[in-house]
Write a structure and sequence with these properties.
Blueprint lengths: L15 E5 L2 E5 L6 E3 L3 H5 L7 H6 L7 E5 L7 E6 L7 E4 L6 E3 L3 H14 L4 H11 L3
Length: about 140
Amino acid sequence: MNNKIFCPQCESQEMREEVIHGLKVHICDKCGGLWLDKGELNGIAHPIEGDLEYCSTDHFAEDRVSDVKCPVCKEEKMVKVNFIHYTDIILDYCKKCHGLWLNRGELDAINAEIDRLHKVPESWDHRIMVFLSKLPF
């Protein structure tokens, strides 16, 4: 079984495994991109109430097909999703394996947004969003 994962941006660049907060993720040394399997974004981003991946992948447009293919599913084109619908942080998401591709700096941008949310007094909109993100669908 071939466990090698190649960067979806650099294509021929094999990604190295690195442990972050106890989770094994894949990083491209060439472009600095980061591959996360389903559930790993919640484990490596700054802690916050709710499911970050659900907030990111709940609403995506079918016409927002990415230029990159999933490094796990190989031929599956990924789709572009906003990290939390009101941000300008765009991630690539595989609808088949539910993995996420983060370009260099996007994890830092996600953490900065989480920090900003912690500093801003919670609005009713935010409280409702957090509540809804916890509901089982």
